[in-house]
Specification:
Blueprint lengths: L5 E5 L11 H19 L3 E8 L4 H9 L4 H18 L6 E4 L3 H17 L2 E11 L4 E3 L18 E10 L5 H10 L4 E2 L1 H12 L5 E2 L1 E2 L7 E2 L2 E6 L1 H6 L1 H4 L9 H6 L4 E5 L3 H14 L8 E4 L2 E3 L2 E2 L10 H8 L1 H11 L6 E2 L2 H31 L2 E2 L9 H19 L4 H22 L1 H6 L3 H22 L6 H9 L3 H4 L15 E2 L12 H6 L10 H11 L11 H5 L3 E12 L2 E10 L4 E6 L7 H4 L3 E5 L5 E3 L2 E3 L2 E2 L1 E4 L2 E4 L11 E2 L1
Parallel strand pairs: 1-2, 1-12, 2-3, 7-13, 12-13, 14-16
Antiparallel strand pairs: 4-5, 4-6, 6-8, 9-11, 10-11, 14-15, 17-18, 19-20, 19-22, 19-28, 20-21, 22-25, 23-24, 26-27
Bound molecules: 5'-O-[(L-methionyl)-sulphamoyl]adenosine (MSP).
5'-O-[(L-methionyl)-sulphamoyl]adenosine (MSP) binds next to helix 1, helix 7 and strand 12.
Amino acid sequence: MTEKKTFYITTPIYYPSDKLHIGHAYTTVASDAMTRYKKQRGYDAYFLTGTDEHGQKIQQRAQEAGKTPQEFVDGIVSGIKELWQLLDIQYDDFIRTTDERHVKVVQDIFKKIYEKGDIYKSEYSGWYCTPCETFFTERQLAEGHTCPDCGRPVEVAHEESYFFEMSKYADRWLEFIEANPDFIQPETRRNEMISFVKQGLEDLCVSRTTFDWGIPVPIDSKHVIYVWFDALTNYISALGYGTDDDSKFRKYWPADIHLMAKDIIRFHAIIWPIILMAADIPLPKKVVAHGWLLMQDGKMSKSKGNVVDPVILAEKYGVDAIRFFLLREMAYGMDANYSEEALVNCINIDLANDYGNLLSRTTAMIEKFLGGVITPGTEGTEFDAELIELAAATPENMARYMDKLDAANAISEIWKLVNKANKYVDAAAPWALNKAGETEKLKTVMYNLAEVLRQVTILISPVMPHIADRVWEQLGLTAETAGSDWTALEWGKLPAGTRIKRGEPLFPRIEWEKQQAAPAEQPTPAAPAEAAKAAEAAAEIAPLKPEITIEDFEKIDLRVCKVLTAEKIKKADKLLKLTVSLGNEERTVVSGIAQHYTPEELIGKQLVIVANLKPAKLRGVESRGMILAASCGDTLQVIEAPCDILPGGTVR
Ligand code: MSP
């Protein structure tokens, strides 16, 4: 049997000084999705994360908390592990820089470089940013003696130190980058790093004496090793480099990807490779920097006090949705703006409308038209080939992006297939095939839709690990019958004769406006007298109209319709022009709801329309039908039809 190809990916190791926020979670979710994706493709993938526990910052925080540094970090590390568990992060190893296995390797590498003559003792005189644990020269500082990275004040540092002669390696580093143009990704970061090195590399201070929470310098116990020299080494200490059991190191090193945010690329793309060069260890294959998650006032960070807690978000919206949103939202190498509203929009549009609704429609029609059984028919339709071709091309289209860790575009490729399938429903019109008795064609259409759903679900499950089980249940499949890796992506692997089992919507729509308007806490029920008063004040109940017979009522044709487009009508404050689908036709309706809904809020909604109302012209626009709404006093709300009743369905 041939050995599987290996894939080794790392995240930065996190400072256990505070609770992690959703910005931190991005790197870990992206690495986890990448690992799962590689496993799906048959790789022996290995994913490392961990915590960076030494240094001045941690020592200070521990002092403030009245704890020893070890007690302090122990308390926080368990919370970080719980967070990763909650977010479904399947790491293969979690390294702590206080682990004995790590300490020994760091000391050995320091000693090796010292003995080679590339580490020497001298005097450091300059500036230090404790939150970033970074040395700066006067020239590098920002205005007012502040840190150029985080903007906080820096401190003078003047102490005896060991220096790593990085300057000696500048040419070798530049040659390496030249020969390996993909080493630093994306290209903008590569260019930044090259120009940084070309400006002249200074030797790096690699030991401190003004505090003691660190790994002792092996040849001089008065010093502790600089926290970044210590931390970067985790990527190989975790693999057992230089120990009696270095089998993992031999198997997985060099790393395929070190992933991090752009603020710490310099440590990974310059300092770390030069440490490795000096220690005669092969360099990693790629260093990839993603952007930041931004809030309105800039980078999400504890120092700004603008952090979002992933635990609260996951409880409110579910882990799959959070993971999907993070990866969908951050374009490759760019910053992304975070807002809860953007998250809700992403859930409502991509997950509820596109993906969830495709499953609901498909299972609803299979049940209604075919007694719940998925079996391809002996005849097809003219729309099948395009759908099947796109399904066949999607894995490679997606892989082109995912392989370089561009998850946002990888998801877009999968969503092209989801959208195509939704359009296929409208074009192939299974309800019309059913009506016309074209059973063989109908069976094929429904099989194709279920098959696309199966393939999309396999492709998206590295991003949303829980989704597959939920979809398989509704499609009547299991992990075995549906398949879970790329070998299952062959068209037609959905077993004929599968019996579906309809279920709850995958992602119920979230009413953002209502959620915002709702009081923070559940109101306590009003006392009877108060309730009566409130009812009296609120209700301007219109008097009842004269009785009608059932025959009168039956003349009204009420139908489910889906809003496709919506726009305001010029100079008409109250009117919106909507295009709605009734399944087998589209029509324009003018509705007096503009003061209660924005056009965007209506798109995608399923409403109820009086379909046989005589057309009328309103502000020059011909309206064919009337949208039903409930109103009381100033409040008005459209009547929404359940999303799994197809457009055109009757309302009785
Ligand atoms: N301990 C160092 C890394 C050492 S790796 C050898 C460190 N830790 S950290 O906890 O401060 O940050 C870990 C990662 O989270 C970094 O890549 C950092 O840039 C990232 N992020 C922190 N805030 C972020 C956002 N708002 N958005 C995206 N990533 C963010 O640095």
